[in-house]
Amino acid sequence: MARSTIYVGLEIGTSKVCVVVGEVRSDGAIKILGVGQHPTAGVRKGEIVDFETAQQCLHDALVKAEDRSDVMVKNVFLAVTGSHIESLNNRGTIRIADDQTEISPENLEEVKEIARDVSLPKENAYIHSIIQHYYVDGQEKVLNPVGMLGQKLEADYHIIHGVKTRIQNAIRCVREVPLEVEDIVFSPIAAAQVVLNREAKQQGALLIDIGGGTTEYVLYIEGAVVASGCLGIGGDHITNDLSIVFKIPIGRAEKLKVDRGSAQVEGIDPEAIIDLEADSHFKGSKVHQEELNMVINARLRETFQLLRERLRETGQLDKVGKGIYLIGGTSLMEGIEDLAEEIFELPVQRSSSASMSGPAAIFENPQYATPVGLIRYAQLLDEQRPQGGALSNIGKKFGRMLGLGR
Question: pTM of the prediction?
Answer without folding.
Answer: 0.90
